[in-house]
Design a protein that fits this description.
By secondary structure, the chain is α/β, with parallel strands linked by helices. It is built from 14 helices and 11 strands. Helices cover 43% and strands 16% of the residues. It starts with a strand and ends in a 12-residue tail after the last helix.
């Protein structure tokens, strides 16, 4: 099953895009209305037999990207955020420039191509980024690449004090619990009351780890093992906030068990949690995706989570990833927006907003050559 995502300023426009691209037999898998305007609709086509689905599963990454690049739509411009919804990229303390050597690089197409190849981006995606970088009249390489990334991908940072709970989902080892703690730490530093809800009843030590973060940050942590228990906490939170001042800043982050999106039972369990969290508190599911993986696997993972209404992702382990080609491929195929980047194991300032310039800095920063392995 091939999924397509369409973004428009109204639901009517989105549906017209769906019909034009997929025909009248298209099935709407999910639809999301952004808080700042715009609609995002994910759709597929019904009536495909198992043989066709099998052929689709055997499509090369190049074929998938060629289809995606030929059918790219842009996210509508975002309205200015409410002061309580400020993101850390609007904080001068978080606007560190790219490393000095990167800032000094003059635009050179061969140099840019070499950097993108070093990060193992698929050739088609390299060509698309190079075309966009050549399309702007700027002298510095980082400026041209930033422009190309902004044109090619979506960037939508999470606010420091989200209106609704943020539910983190992802594969085993992606860093969901640590990311929840980092988001909470960011809120606490800004004087925002924060709390965590852990629903991970599968991993040994999950409750203890969340509790330790709560003690460190002096915040409330709830560990629940059923949907009813989670719903009760979220319902009480919604009632409490409705009775308090409208400008009160408070953040809630939900940590979920590791999910295998290619295991129907595991995926269904996560879907039930997302549905419950959205029902009780309009929670937003966000994918936590570790950098450095295989491009095809990461693309299929991101695309699978997008079917659950996920529209943003936090990229983790950037500090230990040697190549970011898989991250960019996943964003291209799934149309998920870059939200935050984790490039340090420390909680304080452990997540930064994923901006085009920051991403350009990571792609252009010189890396040491990988050590050669002696296999003899």
């Amino acid at each position: 099953m091939r999924l397509r995502t369409f973004i428009a300023t109204s639901m009517l426009d989105a549906m017209e895009q769906v019909r034009a691209a997929l025909g009248d037999d298209a099935i709407i898998v999910s639809s999301v209305e952004g808080e700042n305007g715009g609609f995002e609709v994910t759709a597929t086509v019904d009536g495909r037999g198992s043989a066709d689905e099998s052929n689709e599963a055997n499509l090369s990454l190049e074929d998938i990207l060629r289809d995606r690049l030929a059918n790219t739509s842009r996210r509508p411009p975002q309205k200015p955020a409410h002061p309580a919804e400020r993101t850390d990229d609007q904080d001068p303390r978080m606007q560190a420039a790219s490393p000095d050597p990167v800032e000094a690089m003059a635009f050179d197409e061969d140099l840019l191509m070499g950097a993108l190849k070093k990060h193992s981006l698929p050739p088609l995606l390299i060509d698309a980024i190079l075309a966009d970088a050549n399309d702007v009249d700027m002298e510095r390489l980082v400026d041209c690449l930033s422009y190309a990334l902004e044109k090619r991908f979506n960037f939508d940072a999470l606010p420091i004090a989200p209106r609704h709970p943020i539910l983190l989902a992802g594969l085993p080892g992606a860093g969901k619990t640590v990311s929840a703690a980092k988001l909470a730490a960011r809120a606490v530093v800004e004087g925002v009351r924060a709390e965590m809800i852990s629903t991970d009843a599968e991993r040994t030590g999950a409750a203890a780890q969340s509790a330790a973060y709560g003690t460190l940050l002096r915040m409330n942590v709830e560990h629940v093992e059923t949907l009813d228990a989670m719903g009760l906490i979220l319902d009480r939170r919604t009632d409490r906030l409705s009775d308090e001042a409208a400008d009160r800043r408070e953040a809630c982050f939900i940590d979920t068990p590791a999910t295998n999106p290619f295991n129907p039972q595991s995926f269904q369990t996560l879907k039930q949690q997302i549905d419950a969290a959205q029902h009780f508190a309009a929670a937003e599911p966000v994918l936590v995706l570790a950098a450095g993986g295989d491009a095809r696997n990461m693309a299929e993972t991101a695309e699978a989570f997008a079917t659950l209404g996920v529209r943003r992702m936090i990229v983790t382990q950037v500090d230990v990833a040697r190549r970011l080609g898989g991250v960019l491929t996943a964003a291209e195929v799934s149309n998920l927006a870059f939200a935050q980047i984790s490039h340090t194991p420390y909680l304080a300032r452990g997540l930064v907003a994923a901006t085009p310039r920051r991403l350009a800095g990571f792609l252009l920063t010189d890396q040491q050559e990988l050590p050669r392995l002696d296999l003899d």
